[in-house]
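B., you asked whether I could sanity-check this one before it goes into the benchmark set. Here's the sequence:
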Amino acid sequence: MARKLRKESFEGSLVALALGDSLGATMEGYRSHDLLIAYQEGRYDRWQMQVALWTDDTAMSVATAQSIIACGGVNGEDLARRYLAWYRTGGRGIGRATLRSMERLLNRVPWQEAGETGPWSSGSGVASRIAPIGLFHALNLRNLYEDVRDCAVITHRSDEAINAALAVAWVIARAAVDELKLDTMVANLLEYVPPCRTLSSIARAQELAADRVPPTKALQELGLSGSAWETVASAFYCWLRNPEDLADVLTVAVLGAGDADTRAAIAGAMAGAYLGADAIPQRWARQLDGYQALTALSHRLYETTLEAWHGKHA
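And here's what the prediction gave me:
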């Protein structure tokens, strides 16, 4: 039986990603769990959080989606060109690895060789912009790894960054055709994604969520840095602890301290794909910069995906 592509997953994923990024932008680098503790105890109203402007997580996800739509698929050269165009506008929120990569692109280093290979090459920047590629591959996982890799090497050339992004993309792809089963998800990831530190951390995140370990303790154990294995695993935890409540997923991810915007963007992208657009908290969405444009972009990506895998009459 042919898979049915869920249009609501496309909108849910991209808008929730942007909400997580925009809400988390005001909290990035915050080291205290005071607000998270207050939220857990019912002393903090999540609607107090302010929706700020996008940072790199949303901007580069938008560029990724636009490239897929323009090219009918993933094209590394076009992705690099669009990332560089965004960087030239100011690159709000840009991370160290991405900054160095953009400088290499400016110096005409080929896109396949522009990414970091040193200590900053295992960051979570790829995972935070990979949602459009996961959505595009919802109907067919063929070449998903290759497309994730081509997106990744523009800024991060470590296997860890690539495999962490692959895990996020796979989850989003399965959710967009309603084939994601949370009870077997991690076991399936272990079969699909090459072994890496991030996979082990995701497995631990699932255990912490299942055991209902409080966010303050769980996030401290999983780690608060921008490394792929910490940010991606903590995003999985924030989602899996309460997978049916997108507002709670985003709140815990944002208030969790550390790399808040990227963690919340990744958690939002996965939860939004899983729950769909109806789960988006409109109280926040109405404050989101470019909300209508993001919705329209998600619909164009949906149509591009149908055309790529089934033809115009799918």
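One thing to flag: DSSP finds 17 helices and no strands in the chain. Otherwise nothing jumped out at me.
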